[in-house]
Amino acid sequence: MGTSVQVTPLSGVYNENPLSYLVSIDGFNLLIDCGWNDHFDPSLLQPLSKVASKIDAVLISYGDMLHLGALPFAMKQFGLNAPVFSTEPVYRLGLLTMYDQSFSRKAVSEFDLFSLDDIDSAFQNFTRLTYSQNHHLSGKGEGIVIAPHVAGHLLGGTVWKITKDGEDVVYAVDFNHRKERHLNGTVLESFYRPAVLITDAYNALNSQPSRQQRDKQFLETILKTLEGGGNVLLPVDSAGRVLELLLILEHFWGQRFLNYPIFFLSYVSSSTIDYIKSFLEWMSDSIAKSFETSRDNAFLMKHVTLLIGKEELDNASTGPKVVLASVASLEAGFSHDIFAEWAADVKNLVLFTERGQFGTLARMLQADPPPKAVKMTMSRRVPLVGDELIAYEEEQKRLKREEELKASLIKEEELKVSHGPEKQFE
Question: What is the DSSP letter of 172?
């Protein structure tokens, strides 16, 4: 008998929703990717909720929201309780991405879809693999071998090869053929006629300029704005494509001896760069070779200042500056607040380096022609004072009394049960 493979798309097919696939191999259920978007809409996860408790293992291909953003919520709410496999960078940078999202939301709202504890709990289930490492599953998955391979696009990004009885299933989405400053291109072309290939065509109709042409246009646009007295805002992800942008800017600033300040602003910027410095073996051949020969670490940046709070930026230089700020969608985070402050000044520039998520402010601004005006909701958490504080404290006291009364009644019932039924005496 041959190997039975069933592929069920849960999300991300025929639209731009985050990716999630159920792949069943002889009854062993693999969830490949568990993405969410910056709207955090639980209805997108309804198909996942129906199968989460039946998942035997999870494979994660990239450490960003669109590939692992729903993992903490699914484990907390849907009963997803399976081992998770990824590369080391996907694990580390994915964890920081989820932290940044949580901090960004909780800074302006009572965000309760998942907590930092939920994130930590979800990431405790990870097993980290190296590229081309064959990992043999056990138990119900006996005979199945999984292996991550280079995908490009993001650090640690993975093309998954899943093998059983000589038949290969290859999962390759969002890969990049091109070699970049910090990443090699994908090795997808090295696979020979897999039995099943799961891929996407998200950028199939986009004409891509050469890297040299793209970088030249990017840098000239930034420099023109700075020389005109304006600021440049680059809305970026927490720990993904931002790495390539940092290297491009760092190299150009060094070449041109520029003095305009560059800031990387996110709640996890320092932690991100600290981890990145130790991941050189996961990067391009040129970066690894440079470190081997001269001990030159590409991410020991001289021209980029790392910030973890908006007040640090407010206290910095008042002149023209470049700020790379999360979140890329402009739906929340420092980028959202900076955009609101800078948008009214025609000298300033908001520069997008990738297509925004569908339905987000970033995507709206990327329309051709762009909108003349956009509506924004500005939120922030402030300490309660006066009557509001008194009302809140009274409500907390009431809730506490209710909890104490409920606990007391439960205790009485337990005592009655432990003593047995009362006997009647005449």
Answer: E
Buried b (16+ CB within 10 A) or exposed e, 133-143: eeeebeeebee
Please, are residues 360 and 329 in contact by the beta-carbon 8 Å criterion? yes
Report how far apart, in Å, the C-alpha atoms of 257 and of each of 86, 170, 205, 226, 261 are.
40, 46, 38, 14, 12
CB 196: neighbour CB atoms within 10 A?
16
- Measured CA to CA, the distance from residue 229 to residue 231 in angstroms comes to 7
Q: pTM of this prediction?
A: 0.87
Q: Rounded to an integer, what distance in angstroms lies between the CA atom of residue 160 and that of residue 335?
A: 33
Q: Tell which residue, 323, 329, 324, has the closest CA to residue 362.
A: 329
| Rounded CA separation 35/17 (Å) | 8
Q: At 199, is the secondary structure helix, strand, or coil?
A: strand
**64-85 as b/e: b if 16+ CB within 10 A:** bbbbbbbbbbbbbbbebebebb
DSSP conformational letter for 11? E
CA dihedral (77, 42, 91, 305) in degrees, to 10, reads -130
Cβ 78 vs Cβ 46: under 8 Å = no
Q: Which of 131, 120, 47, 137 has the alpha carbon at shortest distance from 83?
A: 137
Beta strands in 308-361, from DSSP E residues, in sequence order = 322-325, 349-350
Token couple for 379: 């939120």
- Rounded CA separation 330/310 (Å): 15
Q: Render each residue's pLDDT in the chain as its tens digit; 426 residues.
A: 578 999 999 999 888 899 999 999 999 999 999 999 999 999 999 999 999 999 999 999 999 999 999 999 999 999 999 999 999 999 999 999 999 999 999 988 889 999 999 999 999 999 999 999 999 999 999 999 999 999 999 999 999 999 999 999 999 999 998 899 999 999 999 998 999 999 988 777 677 788 889 999 999 999 999 999 999 999 999 999 999 999 999 999 999 999 999 999 999 999 999 999 999 999 999 898 888 888 889 899 999 999 999 999 999 878 999 999 999 999 999 999 999 999 999 999 999 999 899 889 999 999 888 887 887 777 776 776 788 778 877 878 888 888 888 878 877 777 777 665 554 444
Provide the 3-class DSSP secondary structure of residue 162.
strand
Question: What tokens were used for 341?
Answer: 């402050």
- Per the listing, tokens 């091109």 go with 178
Q: How far apart are CA 239 and CA 154, in angstroms?
A: 9
